[in-house]
Amino acid sequence: MLRPKKKKKPGFWAKYAFKEISRIQNEGPENELFLLSEEEVVALNKIRRSTFWKVGIAGALGVVLLYAPYHIFGEALFPATDVWIPIYEQYIPLEIGFLVYSLVLVIAEIYFLTYVNIKAVANISHACGYPNTKDSNYENNMNALIAVSLEKKQKQLESIGINPYEGLAPIGVIIFQLLLRLKAAATGFFFKLLVTKALGRYALRSVIDFVGIPVYSFWNIWGARKIMNEARIRVMAPPLVKRCADVLYEQQKDNPEFRESIYDMLQLISESKRSFHYNHFLLSVTMLEKFGIVIKEEPPYNDDFIEEVPSKSELTKDGLQKLFVFGIMIDGAVSRRENNTINYLFEKNVLKYRQEEIVDWSKNYFKGKGLEEFFQAA
Question: How far is the C-alpha of 224 from the C-alpha of 252, rounded, in Å?
Fold first, then answer.
């Protein structure tokens, strides 16, 4: 079993998220959460549109409220102050009032977006009758939704000895994460540069400043979309994970070779994703506990695992490929990196399913159509 860790006291937003998400009135049948009815699809689409409008307008207003007073009132409202800079050994005029005002607006927008994200995740979970209080993983599922609404990374995989960044140098991990956080700033900079080049000497600073409206609206919408998609797949995953584990257990319970390979296959899935994902954590814990495998924080791994899979028994290979394919699909999308891994394993005769099949199954899962075709093929 997992070794309990000391819990941190939840902050204001975590408490609010728990209050909103747990306020569910109609719990859906645990074994049908992954199937979306027409009514649920309509409700989810309505939630998406409403959320997109809110965050998009917030992005636009952020730019307008920032630059409109600045260009209307100028130095009368935001006077420049000479500040001594030791590095340059001279005074530099800084609009300190404008910087403080900018910071206040940024904090206000972040608070509003956090509120909207929490409401969106709560509405999505309620529309699907989730989380189910009868689920043995209710607390983990609840914490996963709270983490999504707060855009908080979860690293439970580390507690069971699985590392998505295995094989990457520490600097590679830093760069990998840093690039994800520079998108909005880089887009805004290049968009302004493009407009400046297009208008040339006729470009007014007021025009350049306001062209950021669509940029920040877009990234707010993109962020909200990412959060809602993540909430959706976390809602639908638990019953499918349980079914996958049950199917594999019935087929492989008397096969020690498969049992000994589970940890290595879970690590392979994690490395192919290069991310900490709750659904993969849920799959890993469910599989390890189902097969009675002791969970370790630093288990030994076989570096030659992929090369050795083709030489294993047909029963073991069949179980491993099912586990791999399911693990790839359970986060709701198949990335380019995962496609490369699929093709590699197909060439190595580890997989019998083609990339196109796996992508179609993944899309059906995200649309709420279930994974019946996968289980039938399995």
Answer: 41
Question: Phi/psi zone of residue 228: left (φ > 0), alpha (ψ -120 to 50 degrees), beta?
Answer: alpha
- Burial-class residue 60 by CB neighbours within 10 Å (0-12, 13-18, 19+): middle
CA distances in angstroms from 90 to 79, 84, 96, 99, 218, listed in the order given: 19, 6, 17, 20, 40
Q: Which of 246, 244, 100, 110 is nearest to 184 (CA)?
A: 110
CA dihedral 19, 20, 22, 27 (to 10 degrees): 160
Cis peptide, bond prior to residue 29, ω within 30 of zero: no
Amino acid 105 reads: L
Whole-angstrom distance, CA of residue 119 vs CA of residue 135: 23
The overall average pLDDT reported for the chain is 77
- In 3D space, the residue among 162, 128, 113 whose CA is nearest the CA of residue 278 turns out to be 162
Inter-residue contact 323 to 267 (CB < 8 Å) = no
Hey, what are 310's tokens? 């083709």
The rounded distance, in Å, linking the Cα atoms of 217 and 223 is 10
The rounded distance, in Å, linking the Cα atoms of 270 and 109 is 34
For residue 200, is it left (φ>0), alpha (ψ between -120 and 50) or beta? left
Q: Is the pTM of this model over 0.85?
A: no
Q: Could you tell me if 257 and 313 are in contact, meaning their C-beta atoms sit under 8 angstroms apart?
A: yes
Q: Are 323 and 248 in contact (CB under 8 A)?
A: yes
* Helix, coil or strand: residue 291: coil
For 14-38, what is the mean pLDDT? 73
Please choose, from the candidates 28, 57, 14, 53, the residue with its C-alpha nearest in 3D space to the C-alpha of residue 124.
Answer: 28
Its sign, for the CA torsion 36, 38, 40, 45, is positive
- DSSP code of residue 28: P
Cβ atoms of 188 and 218 within 8 Å: the answer is: no
327, two tokens? 């693990």
**CA separation, residue 53 to residues 50, 103, 208, 209 (Å):** 5, 24, 24, 22
**Residues linked to residue 85 through DSSP beta bridges, in sequence order:** 90
The listed range with the strongest mean pLDDT (29-38, 50-59, 189-198, 295-304) is: 50-59
Asked whether the beta carbons of 169 and 179 are under 8 A apart, the reply is: no
| 136-to-25, 56, 242 alpha-carbon distances in Å | 19, 38, 11
The stretches of 74-95 forming alpha helices (DSSP H) are none
